[in-house]
Amino acid sequence: MASPPSRLYSFSKSRIYPQSSGVTTDDVLREPKSTQNRKLSQKRKTLTFQFSMGGHLSPWPTYTSGQTILQNRKPCSDDSWKQVGSSQQYPLSTAKPRYLEQLENYLRKELLLLELGKDSTQELRLQPYREIFEFFIEDFKTYKPLLSSIKNAYEVMLAHQREKIRALEPLKAKLVTLNEDCNERIMAMRAEERYEISMLKKEKMNLLKLIDKKNEEKISLQSEVSKLRKNLAEEYLRYLSERDARKILIGDLNELRYQREDMSLAQSPGVWGEDPVKLTLALKMTRQDLTRTQMELNTMKANFGDVVPRRDFEMQEKTNKDLQEQLDSLRADYEEVRKEHDLLLQLHMSTLKERDQFFSELQEIQRTSTPRPNWTKCEDVVAGGPERWQMLAADKNSDQLVDVLLEEIGEGLLREKDFFPGLGYGEAIPTFLRFDGPVENKKPSKKEVVHILKDAWKERLAQEQKEKFPDFFFNFLEHRFGPSDAIAWAYTIFENIKLFRTNDIMSQFYAVLMGKRMESVYINQKETVAQLQKEMINADSQNEGLLSMEQFSTILKSIFPLKKEEQIQELMEAGGWHPNSSNADLFNYRVLFMENEEGQSDPFVHKLWEQYVNEKDEYLHELKQELGLELHSEVTLPRMRRALMNIDPSLDKQTLNTYLSQAFQLPISELPEEGSEEEEGTKIWLRLALEQLQMADVKRIGPRDTESTS
């Protein structure tokens, strides 16, 4: 049968409608449903007439239904069909019906024309399929009701979806507008924040300049005050000398006046002409005055013969005071030297004893023990060669090297495992490991495990932390990898963090996951590091990432006021300071907070964590000594409260109740009131209480009384 004549149809927007009618597909879609059905029926009759021979459908070959079709039938098909298929022998390859080929060619041409069209839509692409389906509905009379119901159901659903899309279009436009408004508001807020930050920085710089100016004024005033004091002392000494010279001058002037009067009396001619009686009386009175004066002079010499001048006395007193101060200082230095000498003697004696003891132990060890291992032999065994081994073994003792070597061996064995044995559903098994049967080993790298753990911490800190940490961990894995792979990833990550104990992130996550440490320990440590980094950024006014060692030391002392000078020096050495370096030397503080791909922190952050652990151990050791009990003894709640206040008087009530709640495993709301009978009856084993406090974030709040007074 020949294909439809091209002169009867226009393969453009008009589809298969006759050219003379001028009807397009868009026009048909806008027409009523009855009109569309009538035109499609006319078109179907035309095509049916052209696609069939003599007005009838080309039948499928008889032998095809017996062989080719039966080969694709289900096992539950009729036995009679199987018998027919087995009794007749026909060729395996048969020609496709002409009617089917013409329909396929027609559909292919229609789709090709739609693809060439510029304004073709999804609705137009469905039209050829509708027409082919209409041909089938009309030609297969037996299945016409079923096929019509199927077509109507799809048409109804398509119409419903079109209505929904048309209803959602305004919402989409509104959403786009709302998104633009939100973006504009965000940009405005960011611009406002940047402006405020710039203004605050300018204000900060102005205040720093003002502080520097005030400090310069203070230094100048202090130098001026010291200069004035020196001038005052010089003027005081000058006035003292002038006063003494004035007294001497007055005495000399009086003596000269008396001598002048005597000479004037001796030279005056009128004296010899006076009455001798008067002269005798005057002489007698003068002699009496001389005798009285002589007696007073003798008395003065007797009383004040050993008296020195005030100026000499003050000078001697000052010299004596200086000498006395020097003597007291020398006596104090002597006492300190004597005590140090006694301590050194004791230390020398104890050192001698320890030397003899160590020498005997060394001889015993040399006699009984094996030689020290040669760790360089591991260079050819560890993956990565000598360079990686030197990096792993840097600044580690033999015990730490054993841990590193065990991790390398364990990592190789862990890579070889394809499955882990399930631990079952026992109560002692953690919830995230409860599974029976083999579990697949995902074999991730250390970098991937550390990345997963960091994401888990981020999600944990973002939520309210209502569920327990093991349950959260398993839910996190289900959300990330799906329920089917969650248990496999749980076993894989658990085996990795249990193996790599030297990795900070893995070891801390393992301790929190197994209940050996509380989450607050990790959170507070991260907050401390963040606060330290923030203070360094604030001190970096130029935002160059550089600080001087003096600024670094000041920041450490301000954030950690309870740390000793030796601890501050350890942190500075971990940050890159050396005894030979100057305080003015600059260093890049940003590298202190960096981590490598495997989650290993800088030595500075590691030293912070090490000091935190040591300070907690010392704090709990002081608590045990203050209680004065053995580990297997019971301690009451009032005694624990008094001991905590004695070793740490700065504890506030809320922190104290938190420590007691952790030690006695009671909620804060259920703690007995202080001084009640119920409080006296609350007891716990001391060993258990110290273990509970070791798990929590316990640290000293303030200095002890002895430390503050010293």
From TrEMBL:
Residues 104-213 form the Translin-associated factor X-interacting protein 1 N-terminal domain. InterPro entries: TSNAXIP1_N. Keywords: Coiled coil. Pfam families: TSNAXIP1_N (PF15739). Transmembrane segments: none annotated. The keyword Manganese does not apply. It comes from the Eukaryota. GO terms for cellular component: cytoplasm. Residues 197-231, 313-347 form a coiled coil. Residues 21-41 are annotated as: Disordered. PANTHER family: TRANSLIN-ASSOCIATED FACTOR X-INTERACTING PROTEIN 1. This is Translin associated factor X interacting protein 1.
